[in-house]
Specification:
InterPro entries: ABC-Purine-Binding, PnrA-like. The chain has 22 helices and 22 strands. By secondary structure, it is of the alpha/beta class. The relative contact order is 0.08.
Length: about 625
């Protein structure tokens, strides 16, 4: 028995050795002493007795035994050697009673290197043992700015809480996200039962994931697992049967493939004007009536955001009275969003718009379950392949608003009231500040957040004595309030100068036309796995600025000129030298920020007085949208 096992292991070793040699790879085991950084640039930390995942054992501490094994830890010395006889004896011992003596190993960058017990590891790997006990010493490298080093330091923090060492990621921040995804606080320690549950769930997922696709995406199983439980929920995944898990993994495969992309979102800056060939249009059967559902988080009477989208829905009905029918759901919460989407699908809706970022996960799940239904979520920088997302370049309008406010500010002081610190909002703030700086080099923008707890925004505004205030973009008609757009405060009453406009009807109309004329699929690039985000602006008519009759004629003319320049592409609010509160962001006078850089801004312009608030300072009702779309501060 032991001899036949050695012969099989020997064949596996020789095959692996030859493959590695032919492909220019090291054919034998890695040697830790050969790859360690210079002495003095790392420290050693004893971890004690650790259950070592054998999949992560990749080499030896010294080169003394490295040439006895191939790179997969299978033996490559002939059967008549003393080494082979010891290996055979160990294999028989493993079969009869198991190997229980701990090995001695070093851990470096979450890989393990054996100092004592190489043959034991080889035997256990051959028999498919998952993990083995070992006395482990960790090699801790000095902190650097390298991505792998930063991920390793995040892993060490996570390990202190969880003692989980068998999962790895390729993206920064993933260990913190995993801690949150399993329902733990940032510093909460895992119990032994927590560790066992996680090991069981992750092992089941990993087995099905690795068996599901060919080829497997070039990400770690951990990357895929985190995306999976983020989408479906850790507790829900725990309850899945093997067959249910297998089916969901298969249906979610495009999500995993997309994780390979460094730039996950493809921003579509303008509507697709490509036309299908005339013949194909003539031969195309008449399209059935399109049924469209709109899902709102709040009601039309309580939310200006919902009211703006509702105007867009009504615009669709007026524009396509014969071709399109619509319905809407309002007051939808996290608790009933899944049921709401199921109801819309059951009623035959071909196209569904979910109008807030907090609905994105439910939208993806519904899209995976109903591949024939088109689902779009109103958010930006959202990375999902099964749905498309949409937003508008409101920063273009905010630049014009800033230019108006800067010119109209008698004392150079402006206030900007923002809602949530999410993607898109920071660009709006900075564009406003840059617009104000263009017409008034001395303008200062005092930033206030309506979502920060225990703050009276209007009291702060009065205290700064600002000449002009940028408030809500619009209000619902029932309120009758004038505190929107750009306004002066005169004896406590607003005196409106201009307002930005979200023309969602224009967006919905142009998107519906791509479905009707058969060009919807043209936005899908078969050579990329990126998510698609429609990010249209003034040139598409989806954002605009309306000037009050109170605005001087010369200012109206300037707004018209700037609007034309932006629409034609001759001017970008974020071109030229740009300075943040902490220094120069864009040093090139001829340079311009890319769309991706604008979307993911995490800095404030140097004439903004204020900060981007951390999540713990926000009101509870703001947390959901910020957790989904909150701006991530870059580290290092």
């Amino acid at each position: 028995m032991g001899q036949s096992s050695y012969e099989k292991a020997y064949k596996l070793g020789k095959k692996d050795y030859q493959y590695r040699a032919m492909h220019g790879m090291l054919p034998t085991l890695e040697v830790l002493d050969d790859i360690l950084p210079p002495r003095g640039s790392y420290s050693e930390v004893p971890l004690g007795l650790v259950q070592i995942p054998l999949e992560q054992v990749v080499g030896t501490k010294t080169n003394g035994r490295s040439n006895a094994f191939s790179g997969n830890f299978m033996p490559i010395l002939k059967i008549d050697s003393e080494f082979a006889q010891k290996w055979i004896a160990l294999s028989e011992s493993h079969v009869n009673e198991g190997i229980h003596t701990p090995v001695k190993a070093y851990e470096y960058m979450n890989k393990f290197y054996i100092e004592e017990g190489n043959k034991r590891v080889s035997v256990m790997k051959f028999f498919g043992v998952v993990s083995a006990p070992g006395m482990v010493t960790r090699i801790v490298p000095r902190r650097t700015e390298e991505k792998e080093n930063k991920i390793y330091y995040e892993y060490m923090d996570f390990y202190e809480l969880s003692k989980v060492n068998f999962i790895w990621f390729t993206k920064l921040g993933s260990f913190q996200k995993l801690q949150e995804a399993v329902g733990k606080g940032p510093k909460e320690v895992w119990s032994h039962d927590d560790q066992l549950d996680f090991s069981s769930i992750y092992t089941r997922f990993k087995a099905e994931y690795q068996a599901a696709g060919d080829p497997i995406p070039s990400i770690t199983p951990g990357d895929a697992f985190l995306a999976f439980i983020t989408l479906y929920g850790y507790d829900e995944v725990r309850e899945k049967t093997v067959n249910e898990l297998r089916e969901l993994i298969s249906k979610s495969w495009e999500e995993f493939k997309m994780l390979e992309e460094d730039e996950e979102v493809e921003l579509k800056m303008d509507p697709n004007t490509e036309k299908k060939p005339l013949l194909s249009r003539l031969l195309q059967p008449s399209s059935p009536r399109l049924k469209v559902a709109f899902i709102y988080e709040k009601t039309v009477t309580s939310s200006a955001w919902t009211y703006a989208h509702e105007l867009g829905r009504l615009h669709l009905e007026q524009t396509f009275p014969e071709e399109v029918s619509t319905c809407y759901y309002d007051g939808v919460t996290q608790e009933n969003i899944d049921a709401t989407l199921e109801d819309a699908v059951a009623k035959g809706c071909d196209l569904i718009f979910t109008t807030t970022p907090v609905m994105v996960q439910a939208s993806v799940k519904a899209a995976i379950a109903n591949p024939k239904v088109r689902i779009l979520n109103c958010s930006v920088n959202t990375m999902h392949r099964y749905i498309r997302t949409y937003y508008s370049r409101m920063h273009e309008a905010k630049f014009l608003m800033g230019a108006i406010a800067g010119a109209m500010a008698e004392n150079n002081r402006l206030s900007y009231i923002a809602d949530y610190p999410i993607y898109g909002t920071i660009a709006n703030i900075n564009a406003f500040a840059l617009g104000a700086q263009m017409t008034n080099p001395h303008a200062e923008v005092y930033l206030e957040w309506s979502s920060v707890k225990d703050i009276d925004v209007m009291e702060n505004v009065k205290r700064t004595n600002s000449s002009c205030i940028s408030g809500k973009d619009m209000v619902i008609p029932e309120e009758g309030s004038r505190f929107f757009g750009i306004y002066h405060l005169e004896d406590g009453s607003p005196h409106n100068l201009a307002m930005p406009v979200w023309h969602w009807g224009k967006f919905y109309e142009q998107l519906i036309r791509t479905i009707m004329n058969g060009t919807w699929s043209y936005d899908d690039d078969p050579t990329t796995k990126k998510a698609i985000n429609y990010w249209w602006g003034m040139s598409a008519g989806v954002v605009d600025v309306i000037c009050s009759q109170n605005l001087p004629l010369g200012m109206k003319r300037l707004v018209k000129v700037l609007k034309k320049a932006i629409c034609s592409g001759n001017f970008n609010p974020f071109d030229g030298v740009l300075c943040s509160q902490n220094g120069i962001i864009q040093p090139d006078p001829q340079g311009v920020l890319s769309p991706e850089e604008i979307v993911t801004m995490d800095w404030l312009a140097d004439n903004v007085i204020g900060e981007i608030p951390p999540e713990d300072k926000l009101e509870e009702q703001s947390r959901a949208v910020v957790q989904q779309q909150g701006v991530e501060k870059k580290k290092g």
